[in-house]
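[job 4471] stage=fold_predict status=RUNNING
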Amino acid sequence: MTNIFQAAAAALEQARTITPTERRVLQALRDRGPGLPLEVAMRVLSFPEQIAPVLRSLQERGLARAERFGGSPLGDELWTITPLGLQTLEAAQALAQQSATPPSQQSSQAPAQRSVGPLPTESVNDVTSPLQQEAELLRKLGELAEKRGDTRGADEYYRLALMLIRQVRAMRGG
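[job 4471] inference complete, writing structure tokens
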């Protein structure tokens, strides 16, 4: 369970620093599968020379990988998204969704949220604690996994979120 938590934390950290272009490239690799640099550039409506450094950056961070094969006029590297890249993309989407949803609608948005329950808050003026933010992100990752049909993954994300919520409540003495 610790490894899953560490992977989720790593994905969250990556998601906070991902650029819009990197996100589009990861989405293209996830949605359309592996591709040559030219194909990836076409998928994101960009030029290959603009996408090459993005692919290298994603590779250096462990979010994408290239497999070399026999030379082709279009390139000799086939790019794919890694498991960390997939988790990072899901976390980035969850963060974007969370920031786009007004707080008044966040508590009534998804049935999965009701199973975890609302996050505890002390007052309107308090800033959400890092543990609460992690629990919310894990819940969102659970929703995304559930939408993909990955019920085992969703269950694990929900359990981790619940564990963090209980930890926050225990710290507050409630």
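[job 4471] summary: The beta strands are 64-68, 77-81.
[job 4471] exit 0
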